[in-house]
Design goal:
nine-stranded antiparallel sheet, two-stranded antiparallel ribbon, 2 helices
Length: about 160
Amino acid sequence: MKATSDNSRPQSLTADIRRSLEQALDGQRAGDAELLARVKSRVIDAIEHKCALLHRTVRADGGEWEPVGPGVERKLLWETADATSCLVRLAPGASFPPHGHPIDEESVILEGSLRIGADLLLRVGDFHVGLRGVEHETVSTDEGCLCFLRTARCFFEPVS
């Protein structure tokens, strides 16, 4: 998004759409200038807000890491009413207790490795889904791990 000429808000409307809106409002009576300016500002704000909701980008160096347990932290990427997408980082030796899944929980290992129970070892590039209603055994890592996780919104909350 580009900054507007008055730098008061981001400009996500293309120049041609902005120009059309301005031309449509410019032909009104001079006595209505203040009202038209307010209406124009509200219309443009509403459209830009809607455009901002259509896309979200979190840069690699953006966002905040929040602790969610001993040696475990997350960076929130996106939330809906019932799901959270985040990066999860586990320090070497960290673990997460056995747990169930209120929704299907999807993960992709990006760095390191992650063990689920005694038998399943996930490595870089591996995808895993814990189906809704199914219990996971203890999740742990010897070397540390970074993974993408899509899980229930209420499930993976920061601790204070």
